[in-house]
Amino acid sequence: MSENDQAGAPKLALVTGASRGLGAALAEALAARGYHVLAVARTVGALEELDDRIRAAGGQATLAPMDVTEPAAMQQMVQAIAGRWGGLDLWAHCAIHAAPMAPAPHIEGRDWTKSMLVNVEVTRGLIALLEPVLRQKQGTALFFDDARGGQKFFGAYGATKAAQIALARSWQAETVRTGPRILIDAPAPMPTAVRARFYPGEDRAALTPCKDEAARILALL
Question: Which UniProt keywords apply (predicted)?
Fold first, then answer.
């Protein structure tokens, strides 16, 4: 019997896009609530800083410096979850690509392609990979809405974010009786790097701290 099969072993929470913003705040809050956090992001330095904060507070984390757009890496991660942990208790999907704001006729092809890849295709692939391990633990998946679809200059981000949430809502409707549980929340405006790209010069002191939103979101569990 592995340590994770023993009574009292911590629950496992996967946070994709964990290096900063809401993802980092959720990772810290989950660790403080006794979860072992599997933190996925590309930025190694930011992950290490997150790990330092989690451990300083007495929590546990495993860093996974991976690119969510690499299917082989995601498959390896899910195999590790199944093999070491026997399933997944919580998945918080915070990974997002925020393309520059632009009028619809002037959206660059590379920005559109990357937005579709990260915001839509990656989400589809992760849902397919993670549903079995979430079911093993009767787990929960968290998605975060940002209703920019149809707003001017938000063509790439708004359209692909709307598609991501539409996919999550379909999964939610399909799993009401069978699980896993799918929660979709619309966080308050926060002082994140993504928002700063959209609203440069905004008074960030008027925004809701990420840690406060993380606490509110986890209360939904």
Answer: Oxidoreductase
CA atoms within 13 A on the CB side of 113: 3
Kindly tell me the sign of the dihedral angle through the C-alpha atoms of 5, 79, 171, 163.
positive
Residue among 87, 93, 79, 90 at smallest CA distance from 16: 93
One-character DSSP codes across 45-99: HHHHHHHHHHHHTT-EEEEEE--TT-HHHHHHHHHHIIIIISS-SEEEE-----P
26 near 51, Cβ under 8 Å?
Answer: no
Tokens of 32: 């403080």
Which CATH number is 12-219 given? 3.40.50.720
Report domain extents, the chain: 12-219
